[in-house]
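User: Sequence in, structure out. Go.
Assistant: Echoing your sequence, followed by the C-alpha cells.
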Amino acid sequence: MAVDILTQANVLVLVIAIFIASLISLRVGLAVAIIELVIGAIFGNLGFLHATDWMSLIATFGGILLTFMAGTEIDTHVMREKYKESFLIGFFSFLAPFIGASLYTYFIAGWNLQAALIAGIALSTTSLAVVYSVLTETDLPDVNLAKIVLAATFVTDMTTVIVLSILFIKPDLYTALFIAVSIAAIILVAKYSKHIFQHEKLKNKVIEPEIKFIFVILVMFMFFATLGNGEAVLPAFILGLLMSKELAKVKELMVRMRTVAYAVITPIFFIVGGLKISFALILAAFGLFVILFIIKIATKFIGVYFLANKYIPDGSMYVTLLMSTGLTFGTIASLFGFNAGYIDQVQYSILIGVVVSSAVIPTFIAQKWFLPRHSGDIIE
C-alpha cells in the first residue's frame, strides 16, 4: 500500500507540475517547453518529483512523437528548394561544437579520447523536439523560416547519430532487423495510410483509430530500436516527412493529435528532461560546466550564425539560438557514454546539465529578445 501511495503522490505532483507550467507559460509568454524543463529541474532537485520507469518510457515516446510531428510540418517542396541552406546550416551546426567540445575536453579538461568524443557528440546536438515545440507556439512572419530550421535541425541530429554509430556502436543482427523493419514500415505506412485516414468508418471517430494507428507504428519503432541499439527518432521523422502531404489533407487529425500530445505526453518528456539535472553534481564542477556551456553556445554561433545571416537575414540570431538548443540526442549520447563506461557519473551530470540548460537559456533569449517580428509590429 505504501508503494502505491508513493506512486500516486508522484503522479499527483507530476500533473500539478504540468498544470503550473501551462499557467506560467501563459502568464510570461514563453514556450511551455521551457517552463516544463525548468520546473522539472527545480522539483527534481527539491525532491518533490522523481523519474520512474513509466515516466521515462512515456518521455521517450514523447520525444519520438514530437519528432514525428515535426516531420509532418516540413513542406517537402520547400525542403527541396532550400536543401542547400538546410544542409549547410544543419551540418555546420554539428561540426563546430563537435570539434570545439572534443578538443577542449581532451586537451585541456584531461578527459580520455572516448569521453571527449562523447562530449563532442552530446554538445553538438540540436533538439528537434524543443525547436518544434517552440515553433508550434510561435507566430512567425516567415513560414519558410520554420521549415528551414526544422530541416536543418534534422540534418544536425542525423549527423550526430551517424557519427555516434560509426565511432562507438557495434552493429549486429538486431541492428539490421531494426533498419529492415523501419524501412518496410515507412514504405508501407506512407503508401497505404491514406486508406485509414480517409476511410469513412474510421474518420473523425471519438475513439481516434487514426491516432492509435500512428502510435502503434511509433511504439514499434521504439521496440525495434531498443532491440537493435538504434534510435527511433530517425525513422519517426522520416515517416512524418513522407506522410506530410497526406496528413495535410486531414488537418483536423493533426489538431487532435497535438491536443493528445501536448496535454500529457510531451509535458512528461520535458519535465523528465529537467529531472536529469543534478544541481549538486554541477556545483561540484561548476567551472567546467560553465566553460562547456559557453563552448556549446559559442561554437553553435560560429557554425550557424554566418550561414543563417546569409540565407535567413531577418531571423539569423533567432535561428542561431534555436539551433543552440539540446535535449533528446544530447541526453541519448550522454546516457550511452555513461552506460558503456566511457564517462563517469560527474562527467555525465555535467554533460546532461549543459544539454538541458541549452534547451532553456538560448530558447528563452530567442523568444524574449530575438523573435522575428511582423512588419506591422511596433517596437517600444
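User: And one key feature?
Assistant: Residues 375-380 have pLDDT under 50 and may be disordered.
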